[in-house]
């Protein structure tokens, strides 16, 4: 059997095990089984998914062809003797975006909340949120027009609100439901329609600012600078000071998987291969 066939056969088997584990988890959760049992099955699912990805990638070929009995696979050399340098200026916008995202990713995906001048709440997906400083606590995000050339509502809301505008940045659980919420919020909606009414979570109002019930953490921030970017860039850099951070639970010792952008237009989570990926055009 060729090594390619071995990879396909074994990874396909492991992927079926992952699907079986996911179905079993759903049944166990519905029956209200204990946390220990649920965690065991989650660990099995995640480890099996990781094994499937390792086999499919070719990282374990030396195990499959019997060329090594080492319990640890040898480290691959991705570049080897063949390298390719790309002149970024010769790429189209889509090609450039995909290459940069592939090198700098994965990145967490957030739903960012703002309000327009009429008080309508907006939610928009962002993967450009970055830490600028810890003291003072400053974060930033880059805002541009969408693929249709429409200026994003988030930027318009911040621009009209000016310095001091309040922004809520919601970190999302790494599951399909959150990926669907991102897809919903990525679509253009009329100014009088709030994405809060379209997503799976609900609005929770508190003293620090708006909360999304399905978020695993929320950063409440205030805009301190709106900076135009050089080189005739269409995007603007929004610099914000973090005012507070709200977590889903202080007592939860096990870190929850976050939703991330694993390639240009694909979402998944950040705790090993999850056995799922959600493609979207945003």
What topology does this entry show?
Elements: H1 3-31, H2 35-57, H3 61-64, H4 93-104, E1 107-108, E2 110-115, E3 121-126, E4 130-133, E5 138-143, H5 153-161, E6 166-172, H6 176-186, E7 203-206, E8 209-212, E9 215-228, E10 236-247, E11 259-263, E12 266-269, E13 278-279
Antiparallel strand pairs: 1-11, 2-3, 2-6, 4-5, 5-10, 6-9, 7-8, 9-10, 11-12, 12-13
Helix pairs in contact: 1-2
Give a quick rundown of the structure.
With 282 residues, this protein is α+β, with helices and mostly antiparallel strands. It is built from six helices and 13 strands.
- The number of distinct helices, counting runs of at least 4 residues, comes to 6
Mean pLDDT: 84
As residue ranges, the low-confidence spans are none
Computed over alpha carbons, the radius of gyration is: 22 Å
- Order of strands across the main sheet: 3-2-6-9-10-5-4
* Strand tally: 13
Helix content: 25-40%
Q: What is the H-and-E element order? A: HHHHEEEEEHEHEEEEEEE
Beginning-to-end CA distance, first to last residue: 42 Å
Number of discrete domains: 2
What is the chains' assembly state?
A: single chain
**CATH fourth-tier homologous superfamily of the largest domain:** Electron Transport, Fmn-binding Protein, Chain A
Helix/strand class = alpha+beta
Q: Give the strand content.
A: 25-35%
Task: Give your account of this protein's structure.
The protein has 282 residues and is α+β, with helices and mostly antiparallel strands. It folds into 2 domains: 3-64; 92-274, Electron Transport, Fmn-binding Protein, Chain A (Pnp Oxidase, Chain A, Roll). It has 6 helices and 13 strands. It has helices at residues 3-31, 35-57, 61-64, 93-104, 153-161, 176-186; strands spanning 107-108, 110-115, 121-126, 130-133, 138-143, 166-172, 203-206, 209-212, 215-228, 236-247, 259-263, 266-269, 278-279. Strand 12 (266-269) and strand 13 (278-279) form a beta hairpin. It is globular. The chain starts with a helix and ends with a strand. The model has no long low-confidence stretch (mean pLDDT 84).
